[in-house]
Amino acid sequence: MNDMTPIRHETTLKDWETDQEVRWCPGCGDYAILKAVQRTLPEIGADPAKTVFVSGIGCSSRFPYYVESYGFHTIHGRAPAVATGIKLANPELDIWLVTGDGDGMSIGGNHTMHLLRRNLNCQVLLFNNEIYGLTKGQYSPTSRQGTTSPTTPLGSVDRPASPCAFALGAGARFIARGFDVSKELGGVLKAAYAHRGAAFVEIFQNCIVYNKDVFNDFAMPKGAEERQLWLQIGEPMLFAKGTQGIALDVEALTLKVVDVVDGDWQAAGVIVHDVTNRSIAHMLVEMPFGPFPMALGVIYDDPRPTYEDAVLGQDAKMREGKSTDLKRLLAKGQTWTVDPNEGHPA
Questions:
Q1: Mean pLDDT of 212-238
Q2: Which residues contact 82 (CB under 8 A, 6 or more apart)?
Q3: What is the residue range of 135's domain?
Q4: CB 199 within 8 A of CB 193
Q5: CATH code, domain with 93
Q6: Residues 112-129, buried b or exposed e (16+ Cβ, 10 A)?
Q7: What does the alpha-carbon distance between residue 163 and residue 104 come to, in Å, rounded to a whole number?
């Protein structure tokens, strides 16, 4: 897309639903995410004729079948490469990349990294269920230490990868988090769509079969709200119904939890959320859950020029003043005429 405001298209939820049978395990968090996306697309005025969903391999990668738009179900870990090609071929298309913690952080980790550092204008939705679901429950790059699975029968000893920390380290300019059944997920998706550049959204997703309720400490439908820190631009970082907040320990240069008395968050030293502060963003995505709440919402948002703008601008500059006459180009410079009879005596 160019810098002009895109034309809004009037659609409804039904316009984004396909006739395909949605096939995930009953109770899978993917159902809630699919519905959140399908509700968001009409609200942002997306055009089905210019929307493309690209996926790799895994449970989440069935997504393109269920959204009434264009879609590519690609190969394991290579969705970012395909998405890059689509965007360069037609920059007016709106690209949504759907991946999982195994697809995007393991075999596809290098492709995800390069898409983010290049800053391709697209939305990356990484469903994190901390397990390999499609291949029957093996531990994944994000599985917690101690996770028992067919490939870690004694418990995983690996330190789990943090998708958002990975994305920040790769140079991503937009980082956000949500979870499958959250009412706020739609707002996170809208913010990602509004960002011009690679928008990375980690979505915690419950795997009902192989990693059931692993996120219940902060993401269960009721009773976990006090352990959620929903970040709002320009608002103090408060949680637990405003009785606690996040402050900066200046001496240690780390974050800390403070109590808020009588609503006076300023006296408690609670910091205000600045989405352009990359250092604080790193601290937020690496806060250990338990002593700290789970940071959710838009964590970092600081746009820069996109990859496709740079590449296409470079191509346009190189074409200036150049001839498009192929015959003339072939005849330019030194040419030779080959006599078919030369060297072949009669």
A1: 92
A2: 54, 72, 74
A3: 13-214+305-310
A4: yes
A5: 3.40.50.970
A6: bbbbbbbbbbbbbbbbbb
A7: 9
